Structure formats: structure tokens, C-alpha cells
UniProtKB/TrEMBL annotation:
Name of the featured protein: 4-alpha-glucanotransferase
Top-level taxon of the source organism: Bacteria
Signal peptide positions on this chain: none
GO molecular function ontology, one term from the record: 4-alpha-glucanotransferase activity
Top-tier EC class: transferase
The organism of origin for this protein: Luteipulveratus mongoliensis
InterPro entries on file: GH, Glyco_hydro_77, MalQ_N
Pfam families with a match to the protein in the record: Glyco_hydro_77, MalQ_N
Length: 708
């Protein structure tokens, strides 16, 4: 590590929310190297290459508010009355107006607050303060200041004090299913689970008493091979993967000719053969679906369907045009887009506009795919709600996007360059993690009034009754790793969590949805309290809920505002975990940091501590089978006050294999495994719905039991 940094560098870093020190997972104090600090500042377009430049940058940062007439954005909670500082030439008499979302105009009164004028760039500048009224409605409003002939504007975003739970959850807890949607295939699937399979699974779950079905992120992936298998490394977080379309349920299929129908059936027959493969074949599925969907796309639409599509395109606006243009260019020129001619790497360039015109049919096709897939997923939400689910489909929001994807191309102005998101070293990854995803730039996001963020949330929430936010700690701070460095050479960068969490709560409240934050990992003490105060649920996983590293917490001590589960997608299903599958796989792949004997002994001790507690509370006998243990672990969760209990579909059928092994890429078939039984043989959705094992586990979750 380099020598102690001069204080201007540390002061400059802190002024931009860049951590200069932190406490690691072992409780050690770590000082971030000067090189890392400078690289991260460079990603924020701050020059700290020399002492003089550092001092200049610090002075500019301190004067920055005075150079702006208005702040980039004002975010407040309903009922708050913040002061807004307005900077104008000395002697000017600004008039402030609020333009509310509903069209109403309101004058804003000046606060009795005197600040000495300052000379900024040769102009004597005054700070005049206005106080916002306490009765502003929720929403996105405009703040306008007029002084002389000049007009300045900014956004005022009013967010809920607290996101209230949906009414059914206020009365009682709910349980639901959790699954990787693509892995749950019916006999009609084209090699992967789709929107129709989701509706089928959800309506069946509703009949068993389930109130939600939580699925993996369904964000868009590459439109050409090779499609990235990880749903957590999407090409766009705002748009959806058309792989989830059920071709036969697109309305225009009904108007195809007999010959065209036959072609659709042939494509379907080919794709359904993929259901027999040991590993999922996304590219094979998409090849068949895309060929079929292009035929359907060319079919004439009715007037009402044309109007619906036009309204969808109008609502989605420039974001949809950019995404569809990127897809069309990828189909034409291939990936990575960083190799395209320079003029095509800027979505606002004249060259891109000309290409959009040349590829107009392809651009429309990819816009149409979004209309179809989002319609089908929205239909699934309506169907499961009509079947009795109080929440319905809970979607998942990934942390970031692929560096070579559509969002990285279209939103380059609000994403940081030269760094990627990751995680510092921890118990499971002692060298840290680099997720290769470009992070939001906090300053540019605020400059844009958080529009890219809220557009992304709106798309997902239109399809959902709830939203799980992966690594919700990223709304507070993210670990930025300089390109070319090891993950442990990164540092934290702070975000305006009041704005990010507030807008999330606002969009969720407007959609009538709840929010679950995945708050596992290294968490600052106050963060969980803050999320709870804002009405967001946390996440509790039974195997990680321990008092002293070994002894399991009693379920009664779990948080109320949380989703409690036995397992998660980064661990084997419960039957596999009980059998030590995670230790075996990590050993085979060379991922253990201790000897196999040590890891096995530690794992056995933790697992046995849990099972001993179950026996003590009369949930298990000494001779209990693995199936008995899976049932008892889920029953144990029902004794917690947790508002939500999640049951993995893989546990319903006794699957044992990990869906994702952290720390691996091609060494393990991450995100490529279909739902399977204990023997590893694929299980269809139809088999899940008649499974004795599934019904038995569900009874253990729903049955009222006296505590032992």
C-alpha cells in the first residue's frame, strides 16, 4: 500500500463520496491506496493527478453549489419542508414557482435566512433561500426560478415517508414460491420456462394457498448467440428478455395461414426437443422462437392491436427506441459494440439516426418483441392475482448491467467508465469479487433527475405485485474496482440513498407493490434500520441466521419485516445442502480456502447445530429422512414473525444441485440447470403440480402447529 495521502486528496475523495478507508469482513481497518482513490476520482471526471490539480478540484467542488442557480435535483419525504438554495447575481430578486405533476402552480415563499454574498468567477453572487411547503403531493414536480430575463429549473421529487405493506400483509403473513423461471418447463415449453409457465405455476400455487411467486430477473439479454446465461448480468435492466414469450399465445398467431401455422408447429417441435437436454440451451430456444416470432410479426394487426402497440411505443419513448436500435445494430454488425465505427458508439449521433432509418423494420421488430413479452408477463400477474394471490409475481432487479450491453451503450452518459462494480473480500470470496458491471455515476444520475432509474423501476413494477432488489446495499454504496486491478484494490462510493430508496418507495407505492431488499453480506449497522423505517423488507436465510457463527437463531428472534427462506440461489436446494453438496462442488472446483476436512467439519457442525435445535423442539426424530428434515426446516421458519416465507420450487421436488456456484464461470453450468428431482432427471411443471413431495412440504408451511 502506498504512503499516506496528502490531506487534500482525502478531502477531495470524501467530497465526492469516495471512501478513503473502511473496515473489512474480519474487522480490520483498511486504508484505501492513493492510486485507487485517484482512479475512482478520474471515473467521476475529477483530476487529482497532482497536488495542485487536487487542490484546484477541491476548491471547485466546494464552490460548485454557488455556480449553479439551483441544485441538480431536490428529493424530500412527504411533509418535509426543506430549504432550496438559489444562487443569483447579487441584487437580483428571484421569483420561485412550483409546477406540480397535476398541472397546478404554486408560489414558493422566501425563507428568512441571510447568507453573505460571495465572489464567484468574478461575479458577486447571492444565496437566496426558499422553503418548500409541507403539503406537497407525492410525485415529480418542477421548480422554476425567474430572475430578470433568466429562468432556471430543477426537479422536486416528493417520496413517501414509508412504503406501507399491502393490506393483506398487514393482517397476516404470506408464503409463496421462489424459482428460476427459465428452469421450470412444462410439456409445452420451447426448451425454457416462459410467461405462460409462470401463469400456470402461479395459478397452481394460488390454489395451494400461496400469495406470491418470486422469480429471477427477466431482464433483456443479447439478441444473438451466445446469450449470457446469468440473469444477473443483463444487457438492459429496463427491458425484458423476449425469450420468455409463449409464441402460441401471441394473438396474431390466430390469423396465420395454415402453412404458416405448420411452420410455427415445426419450430415448436424442434424447440420442445430441447426439454430433454441435461443442460438448458438458451440459444437453441431463442433461435426457434425468433424464427417463429418474425413470421407472427409480419402478420397484419387489427386496429385495436395497432393502437395498443403505438401507445406502448409512445409510453416507453426514447428509451425503447435506443434499446431497439441497439438490438438492430447488433443483428447487423454483431458484438461487441465497442468495435463498431466510432460514430455508432454514440446513440445520439447522426450516424446512428441514419442507421436507425436504414434498419427501421428491425428496430420495429425489437420494439414489438418488448410489447409482446411485457404484455404476456403483465397477463401472468393478472392471472395469478385473479386466482387468489394477494401479491402475485415478485420480480427481481439485478445490481447492474453487462459492460457490452444495450444500457452501457444508451446510458453511457450516466454510467462510470474505467471502473466496475464488485464486492470487497468476505468469508466466501476472500479476494473480493469483480462483477464487471459499470456503476451509475451519482452526479450524473442526479443531473438527470433520476429519470433512467425511475424508468427502469416503472417497467418492472408494471408487471409485478412486488420487487426484490438484489444487493440493495448498492443504493447506499457500491464497491468500485478500477479496470485492470484486483477486486480487493477497490473502494466504496456513496450514493444518495435518500433519493434512491425514496424513488423506489414512490414507484412501488404507485404500483401497489411491496419491496424486498436482499440485504445480506457486509452491511453497515444503520442500513437495515433505515430500510425498515422506510417500509422495505429485508432478507433472512435460515442457514445464515446464527448467534455466534454456529448456533442457530431462534425463529422467534427473526425480523418481522423480512422474507425468510431456508435456501437461496447461491446455495444448493435444501436437500443438497443437507448432504454437503456445496462443499463437494467447491472442493471439486478448487474454491475452498481451507482443507476439505476443515471445511466439512465446520459445515457439519453448523448443520448439526440446526438439526439438533429442530430435534430439541420436537420437529425431528433421530431417524428422520432428508425429506423429513427439509419439511422440518420450513416448519421452523413458520414460527418466525417474518411477514413473508419463501419456498423454493426446487425444494418441492427434492432437487439437490446448486443453480449458481459463486466464483465460477464456465467451470460449472451456472444458470443452465433445469428443475430436476433427487436423481438429477428433469422434472416438468406438470409433475410438480401432482407431486406428493410438493404437497407434503406445502402442508408443513401452511399447517398451524403448536410450538415445541
Amino acid at each position: 500500500m502506498s504512503h499516506a495521502a496528502p490531506s487534500p486528496l482525502l478531502d477531495l475523495a470524501r467530497a465526492y463520496g469516495v471512501a478513503t478507508e473502511y473496515w473489512d469482513w474480519r474487522g480490520n481497518h483498511v486504508r484505501v491506496s492513493d492510486d485507487t482513490i485517484r482512479t475512482v476520482l478520474t471515473a467521476l471526471e475529477v483530476d487529482a493527478s497532482t497536488l495542485d490539480k487536487t487542490e484546484e478540484a477541491l476548491a471547485r467542488r466546494q464552490e460548485e453549489p454557488w455556480r449553479r442557480v439551483l441544485p441538480r435535483v431536490v428529493v424530500l419525504r412527504q411533509g418535509w419542508t426543506p430549504w432550496v438554495a438559489v444562487h443569483v447575481p447579487d441584487g437580483a430578486e428571484p421569483v420561485a414557482l412550483l409546477h406540480l405533476e397535476d398541472g397546478e402552480e404554486r408560489k414558493v415563499v422566501q425563507a428568512d435566512h441571510v447568507v453573505e454574498p460571495r465572489e464567484i468567477d468574478g461575479t458577486l453572487t447571492s444565496e437566496i433561500t426558499f422553503e418548500l411547503p409541507p403539503d406537497l403531493p407525492l410525485g415529480y414536480h418542477g421548480f422554476e426560478v425567474t430572475y430578470g430575463d433568466e429562468v432556471a429549473t430543477t426537479s422536486v421529487i416528493v417520496t413517501p415517508r414509508r412504503l406501507e405493506l399491502p393490506a393483506p400483509l398487514k393482517r397476516s403473513r404470506a408464503w409463496g414460491l421462489m424459482t428460476q423461471l427459465y428452469s421450470v418447463r412444462s410439456e409445452r415449453s420451447w426448451g425454457l420456462g416462459d410467461a405462460a409457465d409462470l401463469a400456470e405455476l402461479g395459478t397452481w400455487g394460488a390454489r395451494q394457498g400461496a400469495d406470491f411467486v418470486l422469480i429471477n430477473p427477466v431482464h433483456a439479454a443479447e439478441p444473438i448467440p451466445t446469450m449470457e446465461p446469468s440473469p444477473y448480468l443483463p444487457t438492459s435492466r429496463r427491458f425484458v428478455n423476449p425469450m420468455y414469450i409463449r409464441v402460441e399465445e401471441v394473438p396474431e398467431v390466430g390469423y396465420l395461414s395454415a402453412a404458416e401455422h405448420q411452420m410455427i408447429e415445426w419450430h415448436g417441435d424442434d424447440a420442445r426437443r430441447l426439454n430433454a437436454l441435461a443442460d438448458l440451451d438458451r440459444d437453441g430456444t431463442w433461435e426457434a422462437k425468433q424464427a417463429a416470432l418474425r413470421m407472427v410479426f409480419r402478420q397484419e394487426r387489427t386496429h385495436r392491436r395497432r393502437r395498443d402497440f403505438e401507445e406502448f411505443c409512445e409510453r416507453e419513448g426514447e428509451g425503447l427506441v435506443d434499446y431497439a436500435t441497439w438490438c438492430a445494430l447488433v443483428m447487423d454488425r454483431g458484438l461487441p459494440w465497442e468495435t463498431w465505427p466510432e460514430e455508432l458508439r454514440d446513440p445520439r449521433s447522426e450516424a446512428v439516426a441514419q442507421e436507425r432509418e436504414r434498419l427501421a423494420d428491425e428496430v420495429e421488430f425489437h420494439s414489438w418483441l418488448q410489447w409482446i413479452v411485457q404484455s404476456q408477463l403483465a397477463d401472468a400477474q393478472r392471472e395469478v392475482s385473479a386466482a387468489g394471490m394477494s401479491l402475485g409475481v415478485v420480480h427481481d432487479l439485478a445490481v447492474g448491467v453487462h459492460p457490452g450491453g444495450a444500457d452501457a451503450w444508451a446510458l453511457a452518459d450516466v454510467l462510470a467508465q474505467g471502473v466496475s462494480v464488485g464486492a470487497p473480500p468476505d468469508d466466501y470470496n476472500q479476494l473480493g469479487q469483480d462483477w464487471s458491471q459499470p456503476p451509475w455515476r451519482p452526479d450524473r444520475l442526479a443531473e438527470a433527475g433520476y429519470a433512467p432509474y425511475r424508468d427502469m423501476l416503472r417497467t418492472i413494477l408494471r408487471l409485478a405485485g412486488g420487487l426484490r432488489v438484489d444487493h440493495i446495499l448498492g443504493l447506499f454504496r457500491l464497491w468500485w474496482v478500477p479496470k485492470g486491478r484486483q477486486a480487493l484494490e477497490g473502494t466504496y462510493v456513496r450514493y444518495d440513498h435518500e433519493a434512491l430508496v425514496g424513488i423506489l418507495a414512490l414507484e412501488a407505492q404507485r404500483a401497489g407493490a411491496l419491496v424486498i431488499g436482499e440485504d445480506l453480506g457486509t452491511v453497515e449497522d444503520w442500513v437495515r434500520d433505515y430500510l425498515s423505517d422506510r417500509g422495505l423488507l429485508g432478507t433472512s436465510i435460515l442457514w445464515f441466521e446464527r448467534e455466534d457463527g454456529v448456533q442457530p437463531k431462534s425463529p422467534e428472534s427473526y425480523r418481522e419485516l423480512c422474507l425468510a427462506t431456508v435456501t437461496t440461489h447461491d446455495l444448493p436446494p435444501t436437500a443438497g445442502y443437507l448432504d454437503g453438496e456445496h462443499i463437494r462442488v467447491r472442493n471439486q472446483l478448487g474454491l475452498l480456502t481451507r482443507s476439505l476436512e476443515e471445511e466439512t467439519a465446520a459445515d457439519d457442525a453448523q448443520r448439526e447445530a440446526v438439526l439438533a435445535e429442530l430435534r430439541r423442539r420436537n420437529l425431528l426424530t433421530e431417524s428422520a429422512s432428508v425429506e423429513d428434515q427439509v419439511d422440518a426446516l420450513h416448519r421452523y421458519l413458520t414460527w418466525s414473525p417474518a411477514r413473508l416465507i419463501g419456498v423454493a420450487v426446487s425444494d418441492l421436488v427434492g432437487d439437490v444441485r446448486t443453480i449458481n456456484q459463486p466464483g465460477t464461470d464456465e467451470e460449472y453450468p451456472n444458470w443452465r440447470l433445469p428443475l430436476a428431482g433427487p436423481d438429477g432427471e428433469p422434472v416438468t411443471l406438470e409433475e410438480v403440480m401432482v407431486s406428493r413431495r410438493a404437497k407434503r412440504l406445502i402442508r408443513n408451511v401452511t399447517q398451524k402447529q403448536p410450538q415445541g
